[in-house]
Amino acid sequence: RIGNWLEESLAKEEAIKKYAPLLRENKTLYQQHIKKLTKEIQIIPITPSQPQLYSGDLIYIMNPHVEIPRSASGVDQGNTIGITMSLLFTPEHYQFTSKVTPGMLVTGTTHLVSTIRNTFRISKLGVGDDSKSVIYYGDDITFSPLDTYLDWKWYLECRPPNHFSGTLGRALKVQLRISPDYNQYCRWKIVNVDPHQRNISTPAPANSDVIIEHAATNDTLCALENWTNLMFYKECEVTIERKQDIFRRPLPTNVWQICNSQQSEQWQKYLDYQARTKQISNPTN
Questions:
Q1: Which terms does the UniProt entry file under GO BP (predicted)?
Q2: Domain map of the chain by residue range?
């Protein structure tokens, strides 16, 4: 081994030469991961809290009833109940741009703070976003992500699995994605949770339990609870599937809230988790 010191030194130099260009171009796995996390936790101010929803509001879509399995390490990742619908950023997207691009998938994450990843603009069809028109139960609406490439308006879409461009996830259920064009699969409706009140047209409430129905298929937004553990949170797939009991009441996986206010208790949990993480990484402080 002593006689091979020159060969080992040359091999290390060759490895460094291959690594240096990736480091200069910010293409190492660590740099891509940090860039992805920085994008995901970019805080976005949403519309000030109001009891009703208006066209043009900045909102995030939360299911507060989904139970999240505890981490194997025993460290709580900020919250144990609730997910938000969030864009799925991958390092491949950053090879082109750091903006939201067409075809991005949408998933459910345990990150309940409004960020660039889970904030959408809700719009009522037939009126402009500046009109601030009240949204009623049964109105056709769309959800548009923020920070899109060239600041174009794109839409949350869900195509049926038998469509040629539909996408199936791990659970073999159709996935939600971002569409660059408006079409029939981008239309959604807010439906009353109470099946006996669904024929009454009243303003849709904010920060309250509702059902989000896909207008093209009449299926409803559903969290699949097939969990994937990531570094700072957990993810599960979101699809359209109607799940209800014998009394036509929706199951917890189908009940959502369209929020225009920051959940104070979830924000405090997020801050507590960040403090614990900092304490673990800096035990001497």
A1: cilium assembly
A2: 1-41, 45-281
